[in-house]
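Journal club prep, shared notes

We agreed each person brings one worked example of a sequence with its structure written out as tokens. Mine is O-methyltransferase. I'm keeping it raw so we can talk through how to read the token line rather than staring at a rendered picture. Sequence first:
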Amino acid sequence: MTSDGVTDPPPWVLVDRWLDGVLPAPDAVVAAQRTADGAGLPPIAVSTQQGRLLALLAASIGARRALEVGTLAGVSAVWLARALRGPDPVLTTFELSEHHAAVARENLAAAGLTDVVEVRVGPALEGLARLAAERPEPYDLAFIDADKPGNTAYLHAALALLRPGGLVVVDNVVRGGTVLDPGADAAARGSRAVIEAVAAHDRLTATVVQTVGSKGYDGMLVARLDV
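Then the structure, token by token:
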């Protein structure tokens, strides 16, 4: 605490700031976040270190095709799209809000990723069903970061589009510890439900990584669809 009674930032926030200097976001991500802030979008995009983790997971499996549920301003889409490998990389991302999608498309164009990322607007479950009906080539990775009550439905829809050996990542599943409370709000219940659904699935190997930093106390679920 400082002499004027103002509480210093907690150590995990200071560590995040230091890490973001040592392991920074690329310019395209910084620009995307700046555009999102200027457009008044909620400050709920992945942090720099979370974005680096997403990119690392995608690169570690040689992902060429990725799915995303919850585009927001396209910050995580920039991270993922830049990490895709191989010929004709594709990221298909779903966003409910027309305004958010417009900001995302602006960011993706500025990052030179328009040919890689397709933003589909509308309810994600409907969009995922339409995508499945198109019988696309299987996807390598799915990132779910949308309304939390829909987590389990998004999980099953994504799994139907995922290749064996592919990864599913679900953000914000710890929610400050409220995931422990079955009587908590709908977001916490949705996070608890998706963890339990993954645990009960006979072809998923998974873990939850608890996170603490500038975005508070939360966690990411990472699951692999077994061959």
